[in-house]
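[scheduler] slot 2 assigned
[scheduler] job type: sequence-to-structure, two independent chains
[scheduler] chain ordering preserved from manifest
[runner] begin chain α
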Amino acid sequence: MDTEVNPEHPARGASVPKRPAPRLPGREPELGRLTALFPVALGGSAASAVLVGEFGMGKSATLRTAAALAADAGFTVAVATGSRLESHLPGGLVRQLADALEEPGAPPRPPIGELCGPAGESEALDLFFRIVRDATERGPLFLGIDNVHLADAWSMRCLAYLRNRVLDLPVFILLTALTGHPPHREVALLEMAGCTPATITLNGLGDAAAAEILGIAPGELVSACREATGGNPYLLQALRPRLLPGADPHELGSSLIGQVLHTRMQEFPHAPAILHAAAVLGEDAAFDLLAKLAGVDELDALQAIDTMVRLHVLNNSSQPTLTYSFVRNSLLKDMPRTTRAVNHSRAAKLLTETGAPAERVAAHLLEATSIRIPWAVDVLRLSARDAVFSGRPELAARHLRRALEERLTSGRRMAVLLQLAHAEFQFDPPGAAKRVREAVDTVGNRETAAYIATAMLLSLCGGQDARLGISAAGQIAARLDAGGPDAVWPLLCMTYLAEAGSRLGPPPEFRDFEEQWAPLTDPAAQRSRSALLALDAVRNGESAQDAVGHFADALTGDNGDLFEQHYFFTLATAVLSDEPAHVDRLCRVLDVEREPWDVHVPHGALPTLARGIALQASGDLQRASVHFESLLRRFDERGGTTTCPVGVLCAAKLVECWVDLGRFEAATSLLDRMDFVASQGLFTHTYLLYARGRLRVATGYTRFGFEDLLSCGRRLAHHGMRFPGFVPWRAHAARAALALGQTDDAARLAEEDMTASARWGAPRPLGTALTTLGLVREDDEAERALQKSITTLRSSPARLQLATALTELGTLQARHGQSEKAIETLRQAVELSEQCGARPLARRAAEELRSARRALTPAKDNEHGLTRQENRIAVMAAQGLTNREIATALHLTRRTVELHLSGAYRKLGIPGRAELGGALAKSSQRVDGR
């Protein structure tokens, strides 16, 4: 990689003739610093400089250019070059300088080479000094010593001897040396260059100079080439003929460069072995792995790594990788294919033993194509799974094609082919369909095939991916159909669930589906049947008792695959949230050791989410939000918050929690980063609409919130979902309609909710519907509905809904003048809402409580103990206003006005309205008389 392979290198030992200085792209600053030192030597004093750089950085070319510039400036120029192959010959480098400085026609002198050695050392040193001194008498002298680190020891001593004796002579000495080359044991570089030489380091070229060497215009390609080579001129020249259209510079290399570098490292013990190990390991080149792969003792490996780091062949970091990708590729190209494959397989094994990520192990397995590695299949599949998850399906396909090269059973081959179909589906849908058919053709063992197809259904979230899984599962189920219903039922069940959750319309009626496969005898099939019966009960919204019973039957086994299906999990938690024992059982079934099939779902996410939903249902909002927040962070890390059905469900439930907690800004921020368009194809998008609708209503955007809630209802109807407890959208839509003055819409929604909830029969939705009914009804009917709501909700864990019903009843009682009852009811509401952490509800209940207490306090301007409300209504009645007019003015019902007037008559001791004016006047006079 240095000047020894450059045909333009000048003949060693010869004076450089005067000629135009060659242009050196990108080295103008360094040459400027060198020429700035010329006046010192031209003025009669010695000057020196040291030019250092890594292999191929252009030290020799810079020295030649500087020598040509010196010749133009009037120097006599002599250049000598150190050589690795001549470093053992005493005096070789000094002989080159002496021959170049010999004056034509001068009397012959003893050859300086013959004097080298212990016997003639003093005479030889003096002779070399006299040659230099005599040359300076003819004019200023430029001495260039290239690759001084490769000079023989005797020549180094000569240069050190000379340096201190030419201080007052017009001599400019320029030495070039390799960065980090181990110093000679006898002579240091500064002893040859002087104590304070100008030191110039040659770094990589910039884009402009690199573009000139490559012969292309500056741009992204040039930047990539410079990055791949570090701007090293020699490497750029080697890269240039390989830079074909479309080529990636980071993947290019030259076997010639690999040979040169390997040869250069031969002089350092164990360096070639470490060098090859670093090339194979790449970014995985940790110290211990380098030593093991190279088969070198750790102390010896450390010494070799230290040397190559100083030479800038390896990076100076905890991961001593090769400095440039072009160098690594060159070393790999110089390595025989079999040797390279074996080394990559060994590297993969070492990385596996250290617990490295599957992707890093798989990168080496891809290169070990001629080696059979049975354990590699699982690693390649796991890495492919992660690659698809991170948006790199082409890489995943490469890993899976490599896995197919191994000897596989029919079941494993089918699994790999289906996984490959999923990866290829991202960029080649027709090719993916062919892979599915190929996988179906490999079906052998029925149970294995059904298990693999089920796993595929569970691993694909929704949208087009889910359609691929359903298609594959359907083809496999048709292939397995000959084995009878027990052989195919679990797979058909999972296919049905997946299809129910991914289609835009309602799935087929389960009763029709069940008739095709009954009777069943296998326990797993029986549990599957129970699961689908539960789903059918939920969709029809007929009986909570039947749905819970079927869910309980489905939970009797240990296999939780059904409950991992996104659609089924969402509905199961919605139904079971009020059943603590069943929630615990569900969490135990879901809490498995293996990673979830879906890469977006973190380990343990489903039981955590189920517990959070149960806590929210019981009114423990703070603890529920902690569950949701911690889980959402993990979904964010995996990029599944807006694309995975479970991630969307988690985000929606957290928004709902924050709305009840009064954390409106946090809820708004979370919804702002949700992709409502991308999630539209997911069933759990319904939860997202519901959460946004509630937030908008709570923050004053009532019209928009009302539309979101109606959209939520339309989606549920489109899915054929009649279960009223999935999301109580009608209850909140009715409140929004009341706020918007749409009383007819509010009454209709309340009646529909009441009908659906009564049919379902569970306390929570029924109590919620009764509360809504109390808001749209008047007088006694409203109070009866709210009283019944409270009684119903007290039999359920729904504390937040109970607090809401108590608040509404207390407000109604206060409005009807039943202040004593209102105070007790609202006190319970405040206490319960504060326990739930529902700050907006607690504030409202507290405000109503204060109003009720004020209303109960007698007015100060009458002696008969009329309350403020009674006194106000009595005065208005005495002025001639009718009960209807008073009710309208004070926003009360006529029944409330009548109740207040009856209380006033009794306290004033009068029979009716006719005596009201006089009684109020007498009361006022007595108060004034005091």
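[runner] end chain α
[runner] begin chain β
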Amino acid sequence: MANPVPATFSTRANALLRKNLTFQKRNKKTNIRLTLFPLIICIILVLLQNLVDNLLDKPKFKCGCVCTTNQTTCSDSEKVCGVKYSDQTQVLACAIPNPPEWPPLLQLPGSEPWYPPVYTMLFTADDHYFGQIVSDNIFPSNVTMDYTDIMASLASNVLGSESTPDTNNFLEPAFTSDLPIYYLQTRCPLDNIAFPEIYQEGTPQQDMESFTYEIAGFTVDQEIRCADGINLWRDSSSVINNELYEGHEDNPIVSAFDFLNSNENGFNVTVWYKSTNKGVTNFGPTALLRIPRSINLISNAYLQFLRGLGTKMLFEFVKEMPKSETPLRIEIASLLGVLFFTWVVLQLFPVVLTSLIYEKQQKLRIMMKMHGLGDGPYWMITYGYFLALSVIYMLCFVIFGSVLGLKFFTLNDYSIQFVFYFIYINLQISVAILLASFFSNVKTATVTAYIGVFGTGLLAGFLLQFFIQDSSFPRGWIICMELYPGFALYRGLYEFGQSATSGSNMGTVGMRWQDLSDSANGMKEVLIIMFAEWIIVLFVAYYIDQVSSTGSGKSTIFFLKGFLKKPLSSCKKLSIQRQESNVLAQMEKPDIVQEKEKVEQLLLEPTIDHAIVCDGLKKFYRGRDGNPGKLAVRELFLAVPRGECFGMLGPNGAGKTSFISMMIGLTKPTSGAAYVQGLDIRTHMDGIYTSMGVCPQHNLLWESLTGREHLLFYGRLKNLKGSVLTQAVEESLKNLNLFHGGVADKQAGKYSGGMKRRLSVAISLIGDPKVVYMDEPSTGLDPASRKCLWNVIRLAKQDRAIILTTHSMEEAEALCDRLGIFVNGSLQCVGNPKELKARYGGIYVFTMTTSSDHEKDVENIVQQLTPNANKIYHLSGTQKFELPKEDVKIANVFQAVEVAKRNFTVFAWGLADTTLEDVFIKVAREAHAFDTLS
């Protein structure tokens, strides 16, 4: 009925995909909660946005208005609004059809404590004569004021201020702050009409000009003071640069100029300018720079050199562009959403990581691998599965945000958002696969992952963002920080937020593809970093997985295996050495010697009759924490043909499970070799898995999948399809009593221990595997279920090799064609149950219970039966004796008992043949005694 052809790549991938989809169906509540998380975050942001909008809708944040009727309250039609009626907060919302004009200013350093203050400009040029003439034209000799047009006359003078410019020029800080405005000239006059007595005392006082002007509806009295402007010559630009770098406290420097090779035929100049105290505000764009006035001064000076002192290039004023009324609005999603959205996207990381580690911790991946699921189908479906979940999650995230009207999503180009999120979720999955190799416990990984999620968001929000906004922080260090995927995610979301805020404030769109070429936009570098990391991390994750895979992990240079070949002669030499080292011990055990000879013959003349051949298999566990190492399996030689069930008996800790673990690929042998269907377990486990079934000692099941779904999945891995698969699953469920009462469609997590064992046996047998390992399959079964299981195993051993470990002697006799007693890591004897009982149990056990007074009489009767009798038990009148079979006839024992009954009272007596349990105990005792003596 079963298809013997191994399943193809697509068939195994299809089986895993179906299983994953079923698993997701079982976890639909968890998936719904996960999907609703971004919706909840978006709703919170919408509610916050509405709350902020309601607060900003109040009059204190709108353009100021007054009633024309001179009343306190009036209707909107009776109000007049404008900048002149607004305070500093309200003015931001007002319409400004005619922005004010401001005279251009120089940025001055801090003034000196004496008057008049002195400000310096430095000059150099290739032509000293030319440079000296031009520099002499920089500052006027006196101030010219036209009081009929104050603002126009200010533009004719050289004005400067120590105030810090703002991000706009609607209100020039120089005319609104408490700091004075200075007009620079070659020499301030020494007479001062306002304060002649101070001058007469010898303290120079500056001239002052005071004027009144109207701005934004307000009348302001402004004072302008005089300051000396000095031009100083320097020999070269490097001298100027060094002087600027070191600072010059005696003569504060306003600007510096290098005329280079300028002359009457050409004007070529380098300008050093004084920047603001804060080139970038903490939470805003770059402030304005007062450099146009410096350029105008030097251009005017050159023009006067060419055309005479009467020529002037007038720089009258600077002004903002007019703007319509813009209600004050704060885009919450763009400001707070970056942190929240970072957490939303990172929420996928713990989900992917814990899912991978759950399969690793529960050994479900190796269980799938042992039933034929290779690394190729596993990683293709697993990666695609997580990618599909992530894409759906991110689509819901963007759709929810867009439907709720968050500008963060609606203003930015959706194609850029798709590319950004798609690259990042691929990187996130790759990082999860990489980190899964370093975790073995789901709880530890979950706690670590969530600490990473929230820590990443907080660090990025309070550290990375600060560095991004600080223009003085080296860009290279920011790129280094973005190499951490969480920071790269935050930077990308930050750029989306900035673009959305800018677009919302200006009434334009957000980020577009052409914006990525802007050097101030970090999205391009983030996309490049994430894409490169995705490829690199995915490659490293696959490499580490191949090296560290449980049991079948490859060499660190496995990709070079085509160039590295192990000499066959060295393998044979090691085999010979192993044989010679155990000659003396095996001479005492003919059955073990015979088994070894059979193995050697099979290695010389391979046949397909023997499915399992072990050649000197050995497993040594290194000691840890100061404990000595343990030799779990000692050079095991074993050959198991098809159609045979070989039983392994032994006390706890004898090495049975270690042997099974090596054969199924959970651990690697320390030395020796084993062949399954002619394939070496050291190098070809992937091929062995396709024809192998395993019932492990502990049930490796998905708690949320039903028994039927388990069998369907593993049946598909064994290439069962259609009606053949359905029939095989139904028969397996019926044979192991899992069909009736709805048990087949109940989740495995709700099964009893016995039901789980029966399901594990059914999984090991489905698909007609040629080799089956059963590690204590009947553990926890009631007598009826045990008998049912035995019948299934009897039928299953036809044309397949089964290795079964058990502690039940009854089970061993009922199922096993041959038995091997395993003690201290090595086989002590091999044979069928009858041979072992005959070889190690050629005795009868005679038991008699009498009063304590007649114990000596019982001993005399036994001595008369045979002088070779051996007392093995004595307690309160009950005695047991071992009687060699060759010395005693059963009829003689009955006659002796009848004689004893006539002489004294016999409470009970019995004569028993040797059981398999007796053989087991005897062999174990002899082995332990031998190890103790040696």
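[runner] end chain β
[qc] chain β: Confidence is low (pLDDT under 50) at residues 191-206, 278-284, 563-587.
[scheduler] slot 2 released
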